[in-house]
Design a protein that fits this description.
Elements: H1 2-8, H2 21-31, H3 36-48, H4 57-62, H5 65-70, H6 75-90, H7 103-111, H8 118-127, H9 140-149, H10 158-165, H11 172-185
Length: 188
């Protein structure tokens, strides 16, 4: 890991502090499984429906599905966003209380929303809440970075990743940032 840190240089791990938590999760859902450019276009169209700003949970919950579909959302993502909006508007998703919760409770609260998986919750922990000890073992970039940095023949399994990363505690989020950069500095 020391060699990788030397190769990459200063850590650029940054929080996304703009907007509110609801905006961040909404954006994460829109961006799932899309290229950055396509997702940015759809996200901008959705915000255009609300005067070029992020909608509130109540606004998104009340917006007709057909209008959101015309912005480019798939039926599946529309369902995810509506579930998020309804939960947030009804107070069943304690968005403003997430900062005070332990990591596992944040993951549990967020993954109760349709379309929000463990990976999305972990990204929220890392890049929105600034939690420094998150290791997203299901992330392909982290797996590839670990394989490269540690000279492994195969992609590591979660248990192996946890063992390797044990010494990085309490800064596994920072180590993950470096692992994402591993293939940028010296592709295999």
């Amino acid at each position: 890991m020391g060699r990788l840190i030397t190769e990459v240089g200063a850590c650029g791990f940054r929080l996304r502090s703009d907007g509110v938590h609801f905006d961040h999760i909404t954006r994460a859902i829109v961006y799932q499984q899309l290229s950055g450019k396509a997702a940015a276009t759809i996200h901008a169209r959705v915000q255009a429906l609300y005067g070029d700003r992020a909608p509130t949970p109540a606004e998104l919950a009340a917006t007709p599905a057909a209008r959101l579909r015309r912005a480019g959302l798939s039926r599946q993502k529309l369902g995810y966003l509506k579930d998020l909006a309804r939960r947030a508007a009804a107070g069943r998703l304690p968005l403003e209380a997430l900062e005070a919760l332990p990591d596992e409770a944040v993951i549990e609260a967020l993954t109760a929303v349709r379309g929000v998986g463990v990976w999305t919750a972990q990204m929220f922990l890392m890049f929105r809440l600034g939690r420094l000890d998150v290791l997203p073992v299901l992330d392909l970039g982290i797996q590839k970075g670990m394989r490269h940095a540690y000279g492994l023949r195969r992609l590591p399994k979660p248990a192996q990743m946890e063992r390797i990363a044990a010494t990085w505690r309490p800064y596994r989020s920072v180590a993950s940032w470096y692992l994402w950069r591993a293939l940028e500095v010296q592709p295999p």
